[in-house]
Amino acid sequence: MKKEDKNQIKTDEKTDDIVDIQPGDIVRVHETIKEKNSKGEEKQRIQVFEGIVLAHKHGNEIGATITVRKESGGIGVEKIFPLKSPLISKIEVKGKIKSRKAKLYYLRNYKKRLRKVIKK
User: Fold this and answer.
1) 82-105: per-residue pLDDT in tens?
2) What are the boundaries of each domain within the chain?
3) Which of 20, 39, 81, 82 is the most buried (most CB within 10 A)?
4) CA angle 42, 86, 70 (to 5 degrees)
5) Where are the beta strands (DSSP E) in the chain?
6) What is the pLDDT of residues 4-37, one digit of tens each?
């Protein structure tokens, strides 16, 4: 992996870089979405979902998933992304939050701000 692509993980490559995503990471997931308009034409676009990783399940298997949570208009939104899906174009790690737990489900009803870790 090149040095400038350190924070980007491409899922179409079959590498072990997916293990780098851990609970507490702030990530941007680029997902390809297919839509049909009123005329019946199919269009593709990339939608970005940015939030905190609550859980990383199933290690580096084919069915590995991450749960990402964000607050949108005061309402919590969670999405589960399969890591080895061809619909996920890339995952960018933007930052990190200091945590000691493997699953951060307590953030669903935790109101205080968490301390961000500064990457060097």
Assistant:
1) 999 999 999 999 999 888 899 999
2) 8-109
3) 81
4) 90
5) 8-10, 25-36, 42-57, 65-72, 75-82, 88-97, 116-117
6) 555 666 555 544 455 589 999 999 999 999 999 8
Tokens of 30: 């680029």
What is d(CA 93, CA 6) in angstroms, rounded to the nearest whole number? 9
What is the CATH architecture assignment of 8-109? Answer: Roll (2.30)
CB 82, CB 67: distance < 8 Å: no
List, as one string, the DSSP characters of 1-32.
--STTTTEEESSS-SSGGGG--TTEEEEEEEE
Q: What are the angstrom distances between the C-alpha of 42 and each of 31, 38, 87?
A: 16, 10, 15
